[in-house]
Design a protein that fits this description.
single chain; alpha+beta; Sulfite Oxidase, Chain A, domain 2; Immunoglobulin-like; 3 domains; 5-stranded mixed β-sheet; 8 helices
Length: about 400
Amino acid sequence: MSGPERRASRRDFLAALARAGFGSAALAALPPWTRSALAAAAPPDLIVRNDRPEHYETTLDALGRSWITRNDRFFVRSHLSVPRIDATDWRLQVSGLVSTPSSLTLAELKALPQVEAVHTLECAGNGRGLFRLPSTSGTQWERGAVGTAAWGGVRLSTILQHAGAAPEARHVWLEAADQAPMPGVPRFLRSIPIEKAKDDVLLAHAMNGEPLAELHGFPLRAIVPGWFGMASTKWLVALRLEERPSDNHFMVKGYRYNYPGEGPLPPSPVETMLVKSVITHPLEGTTLVLAPRAVKGKPPVLRVQGFAWAGPAGVRLVEISGDGGRSWQPAGFMGETAPGAWRAWATEIEVTPPARVTLMARATDNAGGVQPLEAPANAGGYGNNSIHKVTVRVRS
C-alpha cells in the first residue's frame, strides 16, 4: 500500500471511530499511530496543538497569504468533542424571557433576511505559550490562533425581534451541542449582554461562501465581533433570554483574568479583544538577500508586513522598529477593510547588510490602547498582546 493510501485508510478508520461514538478519553487511549494519524490529517498550514479535542493553529506564513483566511487554514478551537449533527433533525430553540418561544429549522433561518460580514476571530489563549511563566493552563498557542472570514447568516437581533424579548431580559444564553464523553462535565455555554446581542452579533451558517464545516460549528454558530473567540459559540442549539448572565462553568470559573497578587475581588471576565499586531513577513530566523537600491549610496530596504486588529475600537496605527525598539516608523495600511476585521499593513526599512535585524510591530487602537512590550501574565494565559519581535539575517 502506498503512503497516501495508508494515510487515507488511517483517516477512514479514525472517522469510523468517531461515528461509533468514541470520545476524547477513548481516543487518548488508542495506540500512538492513531494519534499520529490524527495530527497528520490536519491541513498542512495548521499546527496541531492538541488532537482531541481539536486545537489547530495557523502558521504565520499561511496567515500572511491573504486578507481573508481560507477555510482550510482557519484555526480550530474545540472545548469538547465535536458533535455529529444531522441538519435535517437540527433545531434552534428560542426560549426564556420571550413572548414567542420558537423552534427554528435551518431552512427557516435561511428564509430570514441574510447578511454577510467580515470579522476577525481570535482565541483568548492566543499567545499563551509565549508568556514568561513556569506554566499556564490550557493549550500552548503561539500567534496563529486568529483568522478572518466572511460570515454569512442571520443577525441575532432579527431572531430576538421575532421572539419578542421581555423588558427584564438582560442576557442571551448561547447553548452548544458539544458534550464531554464523561458524565458530570458541563456543556459549553456562554452568555452575552442583550445590548451586545442586538448590536452586531451574527448567527452564521456560512463561512467564506461555503456551509460551515463541522470543525467550525456546523450547522450554526455565533459570531460576536470584537470579543475573543469563546463568545462565538459553535454548534448552537439554543438561545435563552434571562435576567442574569449564565452560571455555566465556562462563564463563572473559566475565562477570567487571574493575575498574581490580586485582591479578594472576583477576577474580571475575558471579553473584548485587545489591540494586537503580528508580523507575517519576514518570518523568524530567516535569511534574506536584499537587492541594491537604484539610488546610489542608499542602503537596501527590507519589506515588513503583517496584520493588526483590536476590539470594537478598531486599529488606528501600526509602527515598526528595525532596531529593537529604539526608534519607530509608521507602516501603511493596504488592501481591503471592514468594521470588525483586521487591517493589513506594510512598510520598508533601510538595512545595511550583512546584519542581524530585530523587527518589532506595535499597534494602537482608536481608543488610545497601545500594544505593550510585555503583556501582564495571568494564570489562564489569556489576552497576550505583547509586541511581536522577529529576528532575521540579511545579506547582499
